[in-house]
Amino acid sequence: MTEEPETNSRRGGVTPDALLHSGAEGEFSAEDLVLASGRDVNPENLAWAERRMAEKGRAALDELLP
Q1: Cα separation of 32 and 37, whole Å?
Q2: Which 3 state secondary structure label does DSSP give 49?
Q3: Which has more confidence, 24 or 33?
């Protein structure tokens, strides 16, 4: 059995499991939280994200991701 090198490209329409991650296991920014919520990145939404991160910590992103 040979292992294929991991790339960021999709092969055959399927993303390899090793490339799938939510991002919640590492550091994230207010911009990440805004994008995960489906909102536009603007000063008002960044302020919302910063407040949410201060209140909930890592759970702020975990609640938004499946």
Answers
A1: 9
A2: helix
A3: 33
